[in-house]
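Re: beginner question about structure tokens

> Can someone show what the tokenized structure looks like for a real chain? I only ever see the sequence side.

Sure, here's an example I had lying around. Input first:
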Amino acid sequence: MKILWSNFPIPEPFIISFVAGGILQIIEPAPVLPPSSLWFLIGPILILAGVAIATWCVAIARDNDMEQPAALVTGGPYAICRNPMYLSWAVIGIGLTVLFNSLWLAMATLVATIYIHVITIPREEQALQRTFGTQYETYRKRVRRWL
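And the corresponding structure tokens:
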């Protein structure tokens, strides 16, 4: 089985949010949760869950280049959510927020997720509609954008 690891992107809005939120947390710590050692358990679990979802996406897509897909991927995580890769990065951002107890990471992850939802996903949906037509429209009606 061939896997295209280029199908494992880190979307730029999330890169920017993780870096900016992390820098702000270092400069001016701003907790979002009450102090607890539990966050050192829950944060990594969420991060690993996000990585697991992303890895599942890559495995399901296999050798289908997700930048220019030859086929519409509708199985695995794509049967549950039309954008599981973006969902995985949002979960990773939430995990980082919890692990570092950071209001900055929470806000930055929220902004990145909103940007993806409002700007990136509609563009991708238009491209998929042009490429796959009725097949994509049927899939879009059956599977929710997020969860």
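Each token stands for a local structural state, so reading them left to right follows the chain. The chain has one domain: 11-142.
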